[in-house]
Amino acid sequence: MEYTPMLRQYLQIKQNYQDAILFFRLGDFYEMFFEDAEVASRELEIVLTARDGGKGIKVPMCGVPHHAAESYLVRLIEKNYKVAVCEQVELPGESKGIVRREVTRVVTPGTIMAGQALEDKTHNYLIAVVPVDDVIGMACTDVTTGHFMVTSFSGSSANESLFDELIRLRPKEVLIPRKDILKGLENKEFLVTIIESRTCELSRAKRILYRHYGERWKVTGINHCTGMICAAGALLTYLYDTQKHELAQIRDINIYSTGHFMMLDAVTRRNLEITESIIDGGRQGTLFSVLDHSCTAMGARMLRGWLEQPLMDLTEINRRLDGVEALNKNIFLRESLRKLLVPVYDLERLGGRVAAGAANPKDMVCLRQSLALIPQIKELLINEETEYLKDIAVQMDILGDIYQLLDKAIVDQPPLLLREGGIIKPGYSEEIDRLRQASTDYKAWLAEMETAEKQRTGIKSLKIGYNKVFGYYIEITRSNLDQVPDDYIRKQTLVNAERFI
What span, in angstroms and rounded, lies between the C-alpha atoms of 409 and 76? Predict the structure, then answer.
């Protein structure tokens, strides 16, 4: 079927993203066509229209404004859809034919970086499960915080242990090379993505681990388990394919064993109501809801992790209890800490967005405000006699250089969007100050420039003008062309003058 050039481009790009809804940028809108349009129209409750596909063919179409696209995207993610965002990667005037477009990111339930789809007190896990011989390797990450964990399961109860761990972690998305791997896991709430088997191959997994970690990956201990290597490699490959940028927030590999914690199967967890109510699956009435008086989202996620993975190491249990006891007895220390922690934003997810290049100006202010409090928190804990609390203070990096940079560079109340400008403080950059002055007082700036150029060239008749075709220019009469300096570039010839830039 012969479609218009634009629709042929759409279909060519769509071929590589069959399992995602394609947000196709057309001017100020993201448009969807064919089946994607029908699905998006139904799920987003927006009008389904039609577009001329060529030779009188009508193609289903719907669209959303680009400035409001994130809210629509989040709604689709909450319904377990994937969205491939396709942008115009050149200006209309730069191309002889149709404007070139490319997918710049693929957003999935397991890779979303911000928005209402993220719960503050719960990790947003993406998991890869790869069986290799008699071992099941599992890799798990939260791209919003950079956490990256690997483990493995073996023996006759490997499948059962895997399922119990998936139920504990409550991932948003699970990557598997074959459909039968999760057979028997009923009532799953996560999106299952079938990945190509070649992404799980050992040689390929080693290459992607080397690309991301360099030689460091070999000293993490992961190299002793083929299953963990293949799972970690498959997970990183998926992230590179969907995020389209370096994963700077993922810096370490943490190996853990479920045997180091108290084993709680799915039935036990359900009946104990640790984090989910047996009545409606909500948080109200659970052990977590009773204990969680955390001041920060980071603290709530840590507490949740502790409750879901009770310690088995007696020494570590007593260290943790010593810390709790010290805070319980020292009212001044406890209340001082709480007062300092209340204004702290979610540093883990802020850092994740910065590393992923997804942070906005407001995020920078939140980060600055939070970093300003770290030295005071450290000072409170550093002189504590309790080893557990003192160790926390010793390991704490106050990130003073980052705070100083943000304090000098970012205004106190920046706009939400980068394109709105007005983000950098006056005095931080001479060039920005100069351009800002030019944009706000351009007439005076042009007059000063005209005067300066007259003095420099000695051409008293020199003048600066503007038209819509050439923009700003310097005009010099023919009688003075012998005085034109070498750094002037000829732009236009008139009857009695020439124009330069």
Answer: 36
The pairing of strands 83-88 and 21-26 is parallel
Angle between helices 347-355 and 361-371 (to 10 degrees): 130
The per-residue pLDDT for 341 is 97
Greatest extent of the chain over all pairs of C-alpha atoms, in Å: 96
Contact, 275 vs 287, CB < 8 A?
yes
The C-alpha R_g of the chain, in whole angstroms, comes to 29
Query: For residue range 200-251, what is the model confidence (pLDDT) as tens digits?
Result: 999 999 999 999 998 888 777 888 899 999 999 999 999 999 998 888 899 8
**Pairwise pLDDT comparison (416 vs 152), residue with the higher score:** 152
- Taking the C-alpha atoms of residue 68 and residue 301, their distance in angstroms, rounded to an integer, is 30
Name the token pair of 222: 């992961």
Nearest Cα to Cα of residue 191 among 221, 170, 207: 170
Strands 497-500 and 191-194: what pairing?
unpaired
**Residue pair 301/122 in contact by the 8 Å Cβ criterion:** yes
Q: Residue 199 half-sphere exposure, CB side, CA atoms within 13 Å?
A: 22
Residue type for 90, please?
Answer: E
The whole-number pLDDT of residue 469 equals: 77
Question: For residue 164, what are the CA distances in angstroms to 268, 281, 415?
Answer: 10, 17, 45
| Contact predicate 353/113, CB 8 Å | yes
Give dist(CA 143, CA 363) in Å, integer: 17
Pairwise CA distance, residues 424 & 432, whole Å: 8
> Cα–Cα distance between 107 and 70 in angstroms, integer?
10
In angstroms, rounded to a whole number, what is the distance separating the alpha carbons of residues 343 and 427? Answer: 28
Evaluate whether 22 touches 10 at the Cβ level (below 8 Å).
Answer: yes
- C-alpha 71, offset from chain centre: 15
